[in-house]
Design goal:
- 61% of the residues lie in helices and 0% in strands.
- It is mainly alpha-helical.
- The protein has a domain of 49 residues.
- Helix 1 crosses helix 3.
- It is globular.
- The protein starts with a helix and ends with a helix.
Amino acid sequence: MATPEEVETMKAQIAQLKEQNEALNASLETIQQKQQEEKDESHHDEIEDPEPQPLLIEIWNAPVSENVKLPHLSSFDRKSDPMEHIIVFNTRMAVVGAADSLKCKLLAGTLTDAALHGYMNLP
């Protein structure tokens, strides 16, 4: 059984993870808005190569540190709690000090089934 101090520490860690999750969601929303603006401003008569995923090219091309050791990441199929998946994902990314661009890239790799289908249909 956890001591009161351990419980308070865990509560503080959960609050911090929720804040990180909210910041990540805000970043995602900003990215999606920018993508929509770029799409609206693009020339409709020009044919563009489709991107293999819905991330901005700047995120996709962001360098990954050679010394990053990637943790095992569990899968999410939309059948379990999405907040739990995000919290676990953010915790594992925080442990290795992953940049936001790396988090964006790796999150897609944790999605399966309906969750992956939904992700691939993002603008």
